[in-house]
Write a structure and sequence with these properties.
By secondary structure, this protein is of the alpha+beta class. The chain has one domain. Helix content is about 35%, strand content about 20%. Strands 1, 2, 3, 6 and 7 form a five-stranded antiparallel sheet that branches. Strand 4 and strand 5 form a beta hairpin. The radius of gyration is 32 Å and the shape is elongated. It starts with 17 loop residues before the first helix and ends with a helix.
């Protein structure tokens, strides 16, 4: 005897079960979350990259401006004392600068700072500032002393510091250079 199975046409599935719908919604939700997270992270990184580019370009421009001035005037033009500016108080660029598009950190007067080896308005050789390779002989007399060398320096180490608060939080950039009287004479 043969067994014949009969299928009821009313027993066929006509749609999705509640479990299948919930699984599909969960998969779609996870995919949408991952996509939105990726887009958000891309936007934040794009802003951070733009801020970093602005800071690098401005720091390089400041260094280029410094290269363009007479070497003997570098210290008085870029120190933090406006009273010794060559054309009168407040006429030199000074030790701070703005960076269009970047906001200074909380409590800071400016986004950018030119750091020179000075203390109390005096250009000093004996300061301990590793970022500026100090202590170091600035006037070439083979002696590292505590005398003001604003009038007789032959090398001038400089660090450009850019600190800002941006869309991705706090940012900072340090760029160092060494200016030399010999270098200026060769140009």
């Amino acid at each position: 005897m043969r067994l014949v199975q009969k299928f009821n046409t009313r027993g066929k599935r006509q749609g999705f079960t509640l479990v299948e719908v919930m699984i599909a919604l969960t998969v779609v939700s996870v995919a949408v979350y991952m996509l939105s997270s990726t887009i958000t992270a891309t936007m934040v990184h794009s802003s951070a990259r733009k801020e970093r580019t602005l800071s690098v370009e401005t720091a390089m421009n400041v260094l280029e401006h410094m290269r363009a001035v007479p070497f003997e005037e570098l210290y008085v033009l870029y120190n933090d004392n406006p009273d010794d500016d060559p054309d009168g108080p407040g006429t030199a660029p000074g030790s701070t600068f703005a960076v269009p598009g970047l906001n200074p950190r909380e409590g800071a007067a400016a986004v950018g700072t030119v750091l020179l080896p000075s203390l109390d308005g005096k250009l000093r050789e004996n300061l301990n500032i590793p970022e500026l390779s100090l202590p170091r002989d600035l006037n070439g007399d083979l002696v590292i002393d505590a005398v003001d060398h604003a009038e007789d320096y032959k090398v001038l180490p400089v660090q450009i510091l850019v600190e800002w608060t941006g869309s991705s939080g706090a940012g900072h950039l340090k760029m160092s250079s060494m200016f030399s009287a010999v270098q200026k004479q060769l140009q």
